[in-house]
Design goal:
The chain has helices at residues 2-23, 29-37, 56-64, 171-181, 198-201, 223-245, 265-280, 292-305, 308-321, 323-326; strands at residues 188-191, 194-197. It has 328 residues and is mostly helical. It has a domain at 171-326. A two-stranded antiparallel ribbon has the order 1-2. Strand 1 (188-191) and strand 2 (194-197) form a beta hairpin. The longest helix has 23 residues, at 223-245. The model is unreliable at 28-36 and 38-50 (pLDDT under 50).
Length: 328
């Protein structure tokens, strides 16, 4: 009998539970919304069953995870004021600055001197304007008639002579010129009893072509040319003056009018004129401008050495080293 009563009791309990569930009304969304709007008196919260405490990791994730907005919440109005973030909460996103409407620039201040003349100047201490400085007038350009023929020189005016730049002698020409001026003496020296022409011996150094390695002769008065020309002039003039001292006056070359015992001013001028004509082909008067450099050279050398022979030797070297001798 005890075994038959246990199933009966279980069936009665299940039937009572189903009856209680059927008697409760269903909850609709409208009734839920009405219940949310109507305030109700606070009721005692039922005692919740004890649950397990959340772990430390779950509590930190719940604190940092932002709350999701509710689907039923209405969006904020566009012209509503921005909501300030709560203290300790996340900052609200910055809003874009709005551009201020353009403003018109202020009108310019009136110029107090606008009605005055262009050449106005401020008044001085005495209250009187300084006088205007006169502007210089540009020079008037002469009127030129493009159809007027150019003036022609008179018929008796001499025609301009054709000219060309002076040229330096080559080595063969220089050798012949020195021999012609110095009465047959050239730039030579004796080696083992044989007289050697130094212009031939130093031809390659002086730039004369050998037509094996070079075929062009440079005719520039280079420093090398000037050095060897000075050596040739010293050698030839020394020998020429020593030869003149042993010759009669009529056969002399350098000391033609100014030998030993003839030191008068007229003799010096005559001998200088003869030497310049012989070496440079120019006739100079006693007091001409071209005579002054040579007279100064003779007087200066005579003043230093007190020897007229050395002075004439100096003049001879200067005549051969001068560009008027080795150019044409």
């Amino acid at each position: 009998m005890m075994a038959a009563s246990l199933p009966a009791r279980l069936a009665l309990a299940l039937a009572g539970t189903l009856a209680l569930t059927a008697c409760q009304p269903e909850s609709t969304p409208a009734s839920l919304a009405a219940d949310a709007r109507v305030p109700t008196a606070p009721t005692a919260a039922p005692t919740a069953a004890p649950t397990a405490a959340p772990s430390e990791v779950e509590a930190r994730d719940a604190a940092t995870e932002p709350a999701e907005p509710s689907a039923d919440a209405a969006p904020p109005a566009p012209d509503a004021a921005p909501i300030e973030p709560p203290v300790g909460g996340a900052p609200t996103p910055a809003t874009e600055p709005t551009e201020a409407p353009p403003t018109e620039p202020p009108p310019p201040a009136p110029d107090p001197h606008a009605g005055m003349a262009v050449g106005w100047r401020p008044l001085g201490d005495a209250g009187v304007a300084p006088p205007d400085r006169p502007e210089p007038e540009p020079p008037a350009e002469p009127a030129v008639d493009p159809f007027e023929p150019a003036p022609t020189p008179p018929h008796d005016a001499p025609a301009p002579q054709p000219t060309r730049p002076r040229r330096r002698m080559d080595i063969d020409q220089l050798d012949r010129a020195i021999r012609a001026v110095m009465g047959g003496l050239g730039w030579t020296e004796v080696r083992n009893g044989v007289e050697v022409n130094l212009f031939v011996d130093l031809a390659a150094t002086l730039g004369k072509p050998d037509y094996v390695m070079t075929t062009y002769e440079s005719l520039e008065p280079t420093p090398t040319f000037q050095k060897f020309l000075s050596d040739a002039a010293r050698s030839v003039c020394e020998r020429r003056v020593q030869a003149d001292l042993a010759l009669p006056e009529a056969e002399r070359v350098v000391l033609r009018w100014a030998g030993p015992g003839r030191g008068a001013d007229a003799d010096v001028v005559a001998n200088l004129s003869a030497l310049v004509l012989r070496a440079h082909g120019r006739r100079l008067e006693a007091h001409s401008t071209g005579m002054r450099p040579w007279r100064w050279l003779f007087d200066s050398s005579l003043h230093v050495t007190r020897d007229p022979v050395v002075a004439w030797k100096t003049v001879c070297i200067g005549l051969i080293s001068h560009p008027d001798f080795y150019t044409y």
